[in-house]
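Q: Hi! First time asking for a complex rather than a single chain. Here are the components, and I think there are two in total. Is that enough to go on?
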Amino acid sequence: PERMKGQIVTFALTVKKLGQEDPRRIIHAFKVGLAITIVSMFYYFQPLYNGFGVSAMWAVLTVVVIFEFTVGATLGKGLNRMIATCVAGYLGVSAHHLADLSGRTGEPILLGLFGFLVAGTMTFMRFLPKVKARYDYGFMIFILTFSLVAVSGYRDDEVMKIAHQRLSTIIIGGCIAMLICICICPVWSGAELHNLISSNIEKLGNFLEGFGGEYLPSMEGKSKEEKPFRHQYKSVLGSKSTEETMANQAAWEPSHGRFRFRHPWKQYLKIGALTRQCAYRVDVLNKYLNSNVQMPPEIQENIKEACTKLSSEMGKALKEIAMEMKKMRRTSTAKTHMIKSKAAAQELKSLLKVTSLWEKFNLLDILPAATVASVLIDIVSCVESISEGVCE
Amino acid sequence: PERMKGQIVTFALTVKKLGQEDPRRIIHAFKVGLAITIVSMFYYFQPLYNGFGVSAMWAVLTVVVIFEFTVGATLGKGLNRMIATCVAGYLGVSAHHLADLSGRTGEPILLGLFGFLVAGTMTFMRFLPKVKARYDYGFMIFILTFSLVAVSGYRDDEVMKIAHQRLSTIIIGGCIAMLICICICPVWSGAELHNLISSNIEKLGNFLEGFGGEYLPSMEGKSKEEKPFRHQYKSVLGSKSTEETMANQAAWEPSHGRFRFRHPWKQYLKIGALTRQCAYRVDVLNKYLNSNVQMPPEIQENIKEACTKLSSEMGKALKEIAMEMKKMRRTSTAKTHMIKSKAAAQELKSLLKVTSLWEKFNLLDILPAATVASVLIDIVSCVESISEGVCE
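A: Yes, that's all I need. Here is the structure of the assembled complex.
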């Protein structure tokens, strides 16, 4: 019982944290509950029921299945479902009529064949990258509706009526879900993507700014506290699939806030890719924060200032870019920091050129410092292309 | 019409390529078609129909919805669906009875409240990371079934009978889908994950082997052909989410081939993470293949041999590790290459120590060579931890 109590407490804490991390999750749960309650009432009350019959069940089903966290996902699923149901229903009824012509024995064979062909082709089409990204759900619903309508036709002479009823209940369910999703505290995929990318850039900026202040001094004091900036950037490394999903969802969204319909979401993916490329380099740098490589203090002394300056200028530039992105306003601050970074890089390069500074050491001892310097110089061009990407 | 013809040809080529890339996709489409045809017949033929009524439709629906490309995904969705339907159906019937006690006016209010609470709580629970990874679909079906059963109870006095029919048709549909998925040319997530990880390691090995042969010579000849090894590794960088999905799916799979049930799939994720870490470093190296940095030929001469040796030994070691993984057999070849790589790294380090070799150059000219050397040395430890990870 003690252990179980502990487990329950842990669970409760996890749930609490989940809500605190993003209170919109609680609102989302509330929205889903509301949508289901509203749509259930269609099914429940006598007069509405008489209109739609058992098909009203499809409205409940639709709401549960298409209601997603973001508006983009919900709209995507909803529209996919409605259109696919409509097209497949029509084709299903046609297939049914066609099979009808072939008489009592031919009908089941023909219908089975149709079902097989449609399901097989559509399943194969789902592997097409474009389809998989945006119309996967629609193709699934297409197969489903086609099979249901074509086959159920045999049982029921009222195929058309049933097909029509199902379609209208699905549309009702879909509209209720989409309306509630959009009207009550909507979560836009586009805005989420925008924030994700800019906060990723900001994380890299934090790292670089911290790195300048932390890396070289820490070698003197050897007191390495774990600062938060050191691990933030790691989430950037694996953000590719999240970004792609969001961009696909965002394409379904109407214009909202500062985003138009058909906002150039692909541009965000490009910036995201550049950011990740920068993050790979940062990961290499981070290794030097962790390692206990001893470096003669003179070497440090030589490049400390230039490295610190370069790193923190780039950090500031990135943070400024992130800020500009968030506010969607262009300022000259980022550009100033970019120019300063380039100057710092030049300075570092010319320092490296001064042979007298380095000749007393062997290259192996200089190696860590040289690598850090080289990677930092490398990052300058990454930062520059990010800044160009953001401007576009 | 000319343009349209062109588009059709392009489309046909894409489809053909899709099938050629992975012929199992065609088999999968065939399997889905077969499963749907079989299950439609349940719905279609009179005697079976009399047993199940309109509920037979749920069998078709289940097959379409749960049939996925891999066995793991199908089993995961199938089991989630069956268990969730069973539990939610039972609770739904209970909720219906409970609401019944409160009389004609209280009933709709109570049922609406139940629906709201269950849908809200379950939707919120879906945000829990563990639930999201493996039971997301189950929770959705739970909400769906609960709402349907609880609400439909009002209309129908035969709640129990209908709930029972639905459950059995869902189980029939689920079993048919799972059987066909497992019995006809199954695609195991576990085996896929295993192959993905080993081929990722192999790609890195190819790069490193190629890098040794390509990078330094190319600076002489300046004839840079684009070799395929140069871009293969890029797919490794973003493989995180694919690996995680596969590991989650693989956890559903029974023992198959060389994999037991409860194979340590998490270990694969660890190896995957190490491989990606290595890939980040390789990305930094790749930049030096692309850049046109001029380097005095003497510098090149100095480290060319050691770098080439180190890089190609590591490449061989990685390829050997990948081979061992594929065959699931441990050989000593990889270990030999590991030992040779370490020796090469030592050699490179001692070369760097020889001050006389380097003193005539300024550090800026040496920088690219130094960075390549440093990153290569860095990769040694990555390769070592991959090899340790694979051994476990």
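A: Confidence is low (pLDDT under 50) at residues 218-223 of chain A. Let me know if you'd like any chain examined more closely.
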